[in-house]
Amino acid sequence: MGGFGACSARRRTQSCLPIAYSPEFVEAHNYFRAILKKDERSERAVKLTAYVITLNPANYTAWYFRRLCLFSLSKDLTEEVKFSDTIGRIHPKNYQLWHHRRVLLDKIGQPLDELANTASVLRGDAKNFHVWSHRQWLLKRFAIWEGELDYVESLLQADLRNNSAWNQRHFVVDHQPGGFSEARIAEELSYCTKYIDLAPNNESVWNYARGMMLKPAFTQSATVEALCRRALQKDSKCAYAMGTLVDLYCRSKDKAQIREAVKLCTELAQSVDTIRHRYWDFQRETIEKTLQ
Fold first, then answer.
1. Which of 29, 105, 196, 229 has a CA positioned 20 to 30 A from the CA of residue 43?
2. Nearest of 80, 85, 139 to residue 111 by alpha carbon
């Protein structure tokens, strides 16, 4: 009983411990709360929000109120983009920052040099999803699709396992006229071939190829099968090629192909992809039920 009481006392004490904010932080936020209460949209409010944001770039309220002040005072928003540049160089994964820039550019009505800016950030971190989301918004908002596939190609040449670049390719093709038509799917599968030849065990390209199989216009089963067999000639234990064949054969009404899918699941579980043996055993059992 005594031990329980002592533990409870410790928890009560710990819950009352204040966060050790710096004096500068406390003072700035006291002033910030005051201007929020007054809804003061002034030059000094703009300066104060800049200071508060440098102290805590994740402060959504500071970013939001700063925008209210900027719009009320009819400030030059291109200069504000430059201000956010300084924050972005230090905090490139700050969601509030990228949302702020999105609102500014939408208000300005021009993309400025934002594609170049996002490309610069992605050179430092090719998988920054905040930046990718922002870039996709830019492409759609300002219809600046030209050259984007070339940009994606340059990223894949630098790192063919860059799954973010593969995702971007899918995004761009999906938003082109015609989208993933039958002809375009054939073209994309052909595109995958060169990267599979370079690295048969690159999961990213296989995910992209398997994505083509889910498209309504997909009719290229023979092409996918040939792609898998091509990879297996290079590496007879390529789990991604075998897994893609399982997916492909499961779509078939041919009993022989379905039985081949069962055989592949068994091989994957027992010798090729043993770390996921439970998954392949489950797949095998599920497929076997379709043969009954």
1. 105
2. 139
**Residue from 256, 259, 253, 278 nearest 268 by CA:** 278
pLDDT, one tens digit per residue, over 242-265 is 999 999 999 898 999 999 999 999
CA–CA separation, 235 and 200 (whole Å): 7
pLDDT along the chain (292 residues), means of 10: 50 67 93 97 98 96 98 97 94 96 98 97 95 98 98 97 98 97 98 96 98 97 97 96 97 93 98 98 95 84
255 is catalytic: no
Cα–Cα distance for residue pair 21/28, rounded to 1 Å:
11
Residue the block writes with tokens 């936020």: 29
| HSE toward the beta carbon, residue 144, CA cutoff 13 A | 16
Residue from 86, 163, 91, 92 nearest 122 by CA? 92
> Which of 37, 75, 82, 93 is the catalytic position?
93
Identify the three-state secondary structure at position 22.
coil
Report whether 94 contacts 130 (CB < 8 A). yes
**Rounded distance, CA 186 to CA 183, Å?**
5
- Residue 292 contacts by C-beta under 8 Å, 6 or more apart in sequence? none
Q: What is the pLDDT of residue 1?
A: 43
In 3D space, the residue among 211, 215, 287 whose CA is nearest the CA of residue 250 turns out to be: 287
Segment (H or E) for 252: none
CA dist 183 and 217 (Å) reads: 9
- Helix extents (H) in the chain: 2-15, 23-38, 43-55, 60-72, 77-90, 95-108, 114-124, 129-142, 148-158, 163-174, 182-198, 203-212, 221-234, 239-250, 255-267, 277-291
